[in-house]
Design goal:
The protein is mostly helical. It is 57% helix and 4% strand. The protein is built from 13 helices and 2 strands. Strands 1-2 form a two-stranded antiparallel ribbon. It starts with 5 loop residues before the first helix and ends in a 6-residue tail after the last helix.
């Protein structure tokens, strides 16, 4: 566990309290913001947030801008932005999300940005997912648990997101190698999402998954 300085915790508290004058004072003390990874468990968010993420959680673009401007190294700034994009995506905050995207350097990794897509899907914002698609993210990226963005949207049960992702070029026939038959169609059936099943079924060519999904959605296979 890292040992955080008093200055680090003071900045977090200043952000939490939206104390702009205190934030500016701490920054002017020339503390090394590039290494400020201080984070606290936030009950409202139900997760750990660092200083920049807390500003995003507060939906305060002014504070976000002040903090990011103080980080002079573009690579480190991008790292904080990527972490904060996750929070904005989960909250479904489109304006904040776009503000953060606009703050990225020109050398940001589209692959890193692709991982934000999972949070955007579970946040349920079509607009944020569209922003990521327009940025050229990898629509068929495999997350560490074996699912693709399409599988995540299918599991969630959001037909609009499923259609958006398919229309963006998602491969409907990818199967989660860690769980047989659980492609997007199978997940729709397992979770009882009839509308998604009806939409995906004509698009899927894997006969085994089609049979599994049909039997499941028909109630032949009981989970």
């Amino acid at each position: 566990m890292e040992n955080f300085t008093t200055e680090q915790s003071q900045l977090y508290e200043a952000v939490k309290n939206r104390n702009l004058q205190r934030i500016q004072t701490i920054i002017e003390q020339e503390c090394n913001l590039q290494k400020w990874a201080y984070e606290v468990y936030d009950d409202q968010f139900d997760g750990f947030l660092n200083t920049v993420q807390k500003a995003v959680h507060l939906r305060d673009k002014r504070i976000i801008g002040i903090l990011l401007q103080a980080i002079s190294n573009p690579k480190i700034r991008d790292e904080y932005i990527f972490m904060s994009l996750d929070v904005a995506a989960i909250l479904g905050e489109v304006d904040i999300f776009q503000h953060l995207v606009n703050s990225l350097s020109s050398n940001f990794s589209k692959r890193d940005l692709s991982y934000v897509l999972n949070h955007a899907i579970w946040g349920g914002s079509e607009k944020i997912v569209s922003i990521l698609i327009d940025l050229g993210i990898h629509i068929n990226i495999i997350f560490e648990w074996g699912e693709t963005p399409l599988m995540a949207a299918s599991r969630k049960g959001d037909i609009d997101l499923v259609k958006l992702i398919v229309e963006a070029g998602a491969n409907v026939n990818i199967i989660n190698e860690e769980s047989p038959f659980t492609g997007a169609l199978g997940l729709a059936a397992i979770n009882g999402h009839q509308d998604i099943y009806d939409y995906l079924c004509p698009l899927v060519s894997n006969e085994e998954e089609q049979e599994f999904a049909y039997n499941t959605i028909s109630g032949i296979i009981k989970e």
